[in-house]
Each structure stands twice: as C-alpha cells, then as structure tokens.
Amino acid sequence: MNNISKNILSVFAAVAAVTASGAEAVKSVVPFEVKKEPLKVNFDADCREFVIPELKKAPTLKDFPKDWANAVKMSDFKTIYRRAEMRAKALQAAGEWKKFLPKTLTPPEDTIVYMGYDKDNLYLATECCESPGNVLTKLPGLPRDSKIYSVDSIELMIFKDRANPDFVQLMADMLGQIYDAKRNDVARTTDVSWNPDYKLEVGKKGENWILFWTFPWKMLEIQPVAGREFALNIARNKRHGKEFSSLAGNKNGFAERDRLVKMYIGKKNPRCSVSAVAAPALVEGKNFLTVWVNNPTAQKVDAQVRLKCGKASNTKPITLKPNAKSKLRLSISGVVKSATMGHRVRESGNRIDIELLDKEGKLINSAMFTADAMEKMAVSLASYAVMGSEDTLNCRVQINCGITKTAKLEISCNGNKSILAPKSGEYLLDVSQIQGDAEVVIRLFDSKTNKNIVVKKLKFTREADPFA
Amino acid sequence: MKKTLLMLCCAGAVFSCVGSDDIPRQFKVWGSKAPFQLSKLNAVMGKVGMESIRIPKGFKEALADTNTIVPKLTEAQKKQPFLPFAYHPQKYLFYYTQPLAAQINKPARAIGTPGEYVQMAFALRTLKKVENVGLELAAFTDKSGKKVIPVINIDLRRVMDLPMIGKQDRTYVIEPRYMESFDEFDLLNIKKDYTERFFVTVKIPDNAAPGIVRSNIKITCGSGETAVMPMMIRVLPFKLDRPDPVKEMNFQILANFNDIRTTSWGRDNYPHQMLQNMSDLAEHGMNSIGYVNINPSISKGADGNYKFDFDKPSGAAMHSLAFYMENYKRAGLNGPMGYYSCSAWHRYGFNKIAKAFSSEWVKLISQLVAAIEKERIKRSWPEFIYFTGDEPGSSVVKQNAIKNLANAIRKGKSDVRLSNFFNGEWNGTSDWKLCKDYANVNCANYFTDRIVADSKKAGYPEIWLYNGIERVASNDARSPRAFYGFVLHRYGATGVTQYHYRYATGGKGKTDFAVYDHINGTRPDYVLSYPAPDGPLPTQQWEGVRQGIYDYRYVYTLKNRIKACKDAQAKAAAEKVLNSVVNTIPGDFMTEKRSHHLQKLSPETLDTMRWKISQAIMKLDKVSK
Q1: Which of A356, B16, B290, B476 is spaced 20 to 30 A from B367 at the CA atom?
Q2: Do A83 and B427 touch (CB under 8 A)?
Q3: Which chain A residues are within 8 Å of B109, Cβ to Cβ?
Q4: Are the Cβ atoms of A242 and B427 closer than 8 angstroms?
Q5: Could you give the CA distance from residue B325 to residue B213 in angstroms, rounded to a whole number?
Q6: How much is the average pLDDT of B160-164?
C-alpha cells in the first residue's frame, strides 16, 4: 500500500460519479499516484569493450603467460544474473537480498582471458582458476560436438557482427574435447556439421587449467583489418554447484546479443550505433520509446531506425549529423505483454530489437533489450480472508495504462456495484452483507462502447464473527 | 511490570485473591526496560534510548509505507487530546501512522483458548501535546461482572523504535522494534501529532470458562482528561493439544547464551540470564535450542584415552555442558537439542588436540560421542541431534568434513540422529541428497512438494524447515507467524529452526549493545528479542513466532479431533476445512517465491485461517458430545 503517495495527495475523496443499480460496492476511495519505474537502457555503458593487440610473435602454451605479455587480458567474469539473484535471496532472511548481489554475482573462481592476433590467426587463451579440493566434472571419450557444456568447460560465442544474428559457438573441456556449431540467434538454428580446422591445446598452471585456441581468421569469416569490430562472449561452465559465469555478464543466457563484448581488432574504429533507449515505463499494449542513435563518424548518415517487438515493427527515417547523437520517438503498439508478477525469476520478459538501417534498408548496427512490462491494471486486497466483524475491506487498484475520457471503472462485489471515474486508489469495499466465499470484480471499460479494457477478479472469504 | 503487579496484588487494590505465585511465568521472565544508552563506544553522548544511537553522517530519515492520511473526525473527537485506537498486534505502526476513522474508539479484540497468551495492540494518536499520561489496567470480566482474567495475567508494554537502514541509499527508517514494560511508575509526555503504541499480552487462565470477557484500560492525562481503551477476548471452549517434540514437532531456534566474547554473535546476552532466556523460549512454545559452545572439557589420560569433564566449561564457553543442560531442563525445554557444536569438531581447539580426520581424531570424536551419550542418559538430558555442518552446498571441503564427522560420531554411537543445515536446492546442488548417508533429518531452507517427495524416496524419514522468516515489504510480523505455524503443516515437517533468537555483530571495535544498533551493523532480521538488565525484551516478530506456534497447535488439535471422530460426515467436513486452510500455503512457499506468497498471508488472513480451524474443532466437539 503506497500510503506515502496518498499522503502527498492528502485526498479522501467520496465515491463519485455514476451509481449502478443495487447497493454501492465501494464506500470510499483514496486515490494515489502511480510510481512508474522509468525504463532506461544504456547500450554503451552495459557492454564491455576491448582492443585486441597485434602480436609480433605467435604465442605458445609452453611459455604461458610470458608469451602473452602484449595480449589483452580480460577477467572479472560475472555469474549469470538469474542464478545470482536466486542465491542472493537464499543468503538473506530480510528481504534485503540486493545487498548480497555483488557477492553472488562474483563467481567463486575467476577466469582470465588473453587475446592477440596476427594476420593469419586469432589467439585466445582462457585460464580457469581453481582452488585445491575443487571437484571438476570430466567425461572422457566424448565424440566431437557432444554436449560439452554438461562438464567443466569454456564456451565461446563469436559474432562477426553484433547486428547479424549468425554466430559460431565453440566449446572445449580440459580433456581437449570440442564442440563447434554455426548458429542463428533469430531463427534459433544450430548446425553442428560445421567442423572447421583450428588448434586447441590444453595445459595446467598449478590448480588452474588452460585452454589455448588458435583460430584462423578465415574460419571466423572476419577480416583482420585494423579497426574492424566484432562481438563475442566467453562463458565458463563450472558444473559442480552449477556455477555459470561469463565475460559479458549475462542475465539469462550466454548468447544475449545486447550484452556481447565489443572487440576491436588493432584499434578502435566505432561506427553508427543505437546508444540508448528510454520510456516512462513499459505497460502492456502500446508504448512510446525514445531511441538515441550515435554517429561517431565525420560523415552525415541518412538512416532509418526500426523497432521490433514480436511480429510488430515500426520504422522511421533519421538523419545523423557527423559526430553527434540524435534521438527519435517511436511507438510499439499492442504487442508488449506483461511478463513479471512476483518472483518468477525465469520469466524472459519482452524482447525488443532496435535496428539501425541505411537508406536502402541494409543493416548498419543493432541493439536489443529485454524488459518487463507492467500490467494494464494491478489489483490486490488488503486481506484475502476477513473476520465477520469487519464491514469493510481495502482493495488496491493501480491503473498503469493510459485512460481515455470515456473510460470508467466498475467494481462489483457479490451483487453490489459502483461505477467510478478510473483512478488508481485504495477502494474501501462494503463487505458487511457477505458470508463465506465472495468475489470482487474490477472492470476498466469504455463507457461509450461498453468494451472491456481489462477485467480482474479477486476471491476472498468472510468468516462468521467470533464475537457475534 | 511484574513489580507493579505484585504491588497491586499486595495492596489488594485490583484483584485481591491472586497471590504473587500466580504471575504467569512469561511475565516473570520478561525484562522491563532496555539499557538507558543503546550504544556506548559509538554513542551520542548525553542522549538516551534511540537517540543515543549515532546515525551515520549524511543519512536522512525516510518514511515507511504506512497510512498517513488524517482521518475525518467528529466534532467530539476533535476536542479529545488524543485518539485511542486498536490495531493488529502483528502490524507495525510508526510514530506517524494515522488511524483510520473506523478504528477510533473500537475495542481491541482477541480469541484464545484457556492457557494461551493472547495479544492485542492499541495506540494513542495525539491531537495536541499531552503530559503525564498514565495507563491503568483492570481485570477481564464476563457479562455478569465476574472476574475471569485477573490483572496479574495482563502485561502492558510500550512499543519502542529503533533506526533501521532504509530501502534507498543513505536513508534510515524509524521502526517499531522492542517492547518495554509500562506500569504505574511510568508516565509519558507525548508530543503533538504523534502515535504512541502499546502492546498487551493476556494469559488466559487454564480454568477460564468459555465466553466473551471484557476489560478497559483507563488512560489519564495530567490535565485531568481521561479516556478508555476497551478490550474483548473470546475464550474458546477447548484446550490446545501439544505435539510430541521427539516424534511430531520440535520447535527450535538458534541461540547462543554461553559465549560473550566480542567476536561472538552471542556477545549481547547478559551472562546471568541463561535460564530467563531459555524460559522465554519455552513460554513461547519452543521445545529446544540449536546451540554452540557447549562441549565438555577434554583431557588425555595416561592410558591414551580421552577424559571428559561435563561440569567444566570448555573453550570460550562461560558455563559447562552440565550447567547448560540443567538450565535447559529447568526452563521446560523438552525437545531434542540441536547439538551444533559438533560442526566445529574438526577445527579450532579440536584440531590442536588431534589433527582433523586423522585416526587419532576419529578416536577423540568417537570417545567424545560415547561419553556424551552415556552422560545424557545418566543425567536425563533430552536427545542430542548432531548437526555436522552448515550449508554445505557445492563445497567439497564442507561435504568431506560432514562425511568424516558423521563416520566418527557413528563410531562413538551408531544410533544417534544426525542432521545439517542444508542449502536445499537454492543453487541446484541438492546437498541434502549428496549428504544423505550422513544425515537422518533433512533440515533445509528450500522445499517444494517435489523435494519433499524426493526426500522421502531418498530415505529421509523426516524433514525440518529452517530460516523461513524474512522481513517482507508488508511492515508486519506475518512471516515469523506463518513460518512457525501453517507452513510446517503444509510440508509435514517434524521440526523447525531459525537463525535466530538474538544476534549481535561480532568483531573488535564494534559498539557495545550492538544488538540495538542496526543502523551501524547488526542485521535486524536476526534479532527477535533484545537484552535488558533484568530479562529479555520481546518484539512483535518474536510474538509473531508465538502466534505461529499456536496456529500449529490449533491445526494439530483439529487433526487429533478428526482422528478420534467416529461420525463420517462430520469428519469429512472437518477434513475439508483442514485441507482448505493448510493448502492456502503453496507447495513452493519455501523457495525464492516465499516473499511473493507472503503478500497474500496478511495477519488478518492468518487469524481467519485459525478461526476456521477453531470453528471446525468446536463443530467436532459438538458432534462427539
């Protein structure tokens, strides 16, 4: 119950408006303002980025990590968010679980990644830190393309372009067993028949185990041109205890394109990108989003921005001035659905893609995010069972969607009905005549057409009065 | 309070026929007032009570989510110096909470069975500054005016606030926490527009006749104005059954009354109050304690065997195991004790006597267990359940220790019960499954219907729930009540334990009375009771635990009545009620969804669930008559 906002308003409004036949269901209403969590996604801040240096001499496993002194070193893996959140909730007993997040987001053992390149190959080494006594899950004798992720392993997801849903997935375990496949993030296809030639060596450094890959650029279909950008994620599967962590720091899965690590070959050479998106709050149905597009180049670019959510999309042209940020307002209509209620941690929410296209419709860059939307109307009762001595019951109605002039709110409770102006508020229901099980129906509707906008039903019980 | 009651009795002013011996033990055990400064080393000098706690620099007060709308008053109410109003004893009222118009001048009400402690709460919302406010209790009488509950059976407390860390960064909330006694030696000056809160506990006498009884609390001001707070109790016509703590339900809580080192979480327990604190547990319905630091003193004899002195304290403990167990017994704790000390038998001093997990260490542990079990029988101590670890999860080191400890303990005595504080499936490791061979009781903090079934399949004869209390956004004590009550029936648990009765942040350099100083360290959810020089001070959360245990016993009583009922139709109807109430708790309550489910279990809902059970019991009793 948000009584603070009630206090701000300091209103105790009498039941207004139209009265239906029969007795009133609502005795009074205290309106409140709905606090909406604004949505803001900063793609630039959320993605890590690194420059891969060119190596004069090809590194070796034998001289690890000496040979890798000039390579880029990346660490600070983060536990997959939904698991970290679950653990934080396990650690707390106070409802203050967010305080435990920094701890649970840090995996028990870090992973260090080294990368360098020359004109022929991309060199990548992963050092998986371990402590004495750790149990490592191994499964020898696996054929190529077996489910390596079910043992202690490293996964690589390499996108030649973050705007392109095609990527390669490569996995290896400490026994040198491998999995490699071509995948598509949109079509959700996997082609394990892709078995290219590349080199993998396995080594040890104390308790730590090391994987050293040499990937020919050809195989990755990436030109090793200075300034070329590609995207990747590196994930660690620690099976015992189900410790899953990644370089990108993911929410639900390792191939989340909006969180991929930006990798620049040799030097940074940024291109036009979607840098941020914001909205007052996402509500079921129609939403307006503001999209920021960044043009770091010295040229003017004529482009289009396309918003996609499910099957619906909306495209608008935009001119990007040299070295400037531009913003654009776009709507997504009728496709955003409510996803979160309570603690359904595994809910995926609504995935929204933002594509930056050139004049001809060719993809320049893209971004995407997953957001939860509020219900159009959220309702709850102060208590779902009351004693017979209680004559009233508080019903909280929070209207999150936009309302038209002709919209009305109808609240009925076992035959009694009130039709009111649609406002978020604490509605005091008259339950004095109810015995046993009852139902409250809250209907937001268009009074002109009598068409429902949203209907919610709540059940409660009123027991016999112990003092009667 | 108890002093007052004694004086009142001696003077014969209120209830002349009840002697001091009849003061309910709970009221004898409770302390009266907190130390006048709640912090010492870090205190704000010259200030007392809550104001002595130093608020960290830059912190601002935030308001809690509570009703702050000024009610529409009648002309007569506007002239009153204050508005008395009743509220639910499990709900938190803040100094700025306003009453609803419908609450003003309505009586505080409670339902209970003979022998129960029932609770009521009321507040005074001032409309102007009032001075010298005193409260006077009166006995509960039935409609004929006959005294049914004497004043001596009533305890009145003032709800005291403490600063807590707020939800937003660098904010704090003044929250109701501990409850101090309020008697005829107490007078209050209350500022204008302030909500002063009181908590009433009433012990219904064992022989109280069923029916509705009434009483008034007289409120007087220095200016001569008076008011009354009416109270009503419906005494139900049956008594609650008690479950067998060994076979049916062991109500347990973790507590450390035997180690006051600054590094210990038991540091803020007054050393002389062990029996008082244990009695407080027993009066709340607890059967046992999960405990550390109670090993016997160990020495090695010339023959190479170990010798154990049960009357000598060991390590950092203040008192010996024998002294501790004598207190345990005298307090009325009759359930199996959670012997948590053994989870450290491979560390600290033990590791110095014999290297952990060596053959010499196995000899030490097995001889120790054999000696403890022998002594336990000799001195008629309850069963010890050996808790060999804490949340092993995926840690191989912890799992190895559990395995070695279990083997060594069973070598000393093969038929003792072993358990653990399992992490359940919080992180997918199913540690309870991995350690099945080394535990008899699956005591875990994560359960679903599927896990309960798997646990049985795996061979665990019983499950215990632990750490199910949490502070929800609802600003009330529904969580402790639900966890110690209906939730246990939902899972068919035979034990429950929680971390814990009283906790103070350990570590050198921390403040004294750290237990009160939540804003600078100690987590409030670990503190259900606060220390005072003359005994423990309750909290609404701790009283919520008491009500939870009663909820459990109401359901348990109905189950027994159903078993004994010979009328098939009445039995079926009662079973329907039982199932509908117990199934209000979802099967995934003990998971990450708990706080979501708690939203639907308001204190009023829990009351109604209990009332449904009560009605079913009364109906069955009518049929059997």
Answers
A1: B290
A2: yes
A3: 389, 467
A4: yes
A5: 40
A6: 95
